[in-house]
Design brief:
This protein is α/β, with parallel strands linked by helices. Helices cover 32% and strands 31% of the residues. This is Trk system potassium uptake protein TrkA.
Amino acid sequence: MKYIVLGLGNFGKALAIRLTELGHEVIGADNRMSRVEELKEKITHTVRMDSTDADAMSGLPLKDADAAIVAIGEDEGASLLTTALLKQLGVKRIIGRVVSDLQKTVLEAMAIDEYIMPEEESAARLAMRLDNIDIVDSFKISERYSIVETKVPAKYAGMTLKEANLTNKYRVIVLTTIKSTESHEGGKTKVSKEATGIAQSDTILAEGDILVLFGESKDINRLIKKAE
């Protein structure tokens, strides 16, 4: 997949490197040459540019990108202008960085549904979500082991955990399942999540639920990919 990371500070740099390590094509852009030079051997492409300049932004392969991530943090104005330009240029998936409540409000007003708060979400967690669209969230415990939230694969919907036999097939442990419910307040849709308790052999895997898995990252990815 192809990703464009705009802003190569600490968060953007870590994200761009991790996505490249996962095998994706990454274009990293920043207005500071020192940052661009630092990453030119570590990610697919780097470019020095002002992301608030419409002409410069039009030169990027935005239509081909699977997502554009605005990782600018220190300049809220530049971050919002960059996000607005991406919206104007018709980018299909925009992920904005939020460093204040006001910025979050503005992004929501621009109908940007995906945003990141680096204080709460590490670059590694975001990279894992981008690497596989079925992953909802993840937490890396060590170099080998992770806890991952992923959608119940369609082929297992309606089965019990015993019938799905995921532990024996993929060497992963299902810790629990999470049910999502939607409510509407003041014209806005609010999604609530609730865990169903410790998973048992008779736990039913319902369509739309989320599995919370523990295991080696390679085994979890194998489960997700083989279940597609």
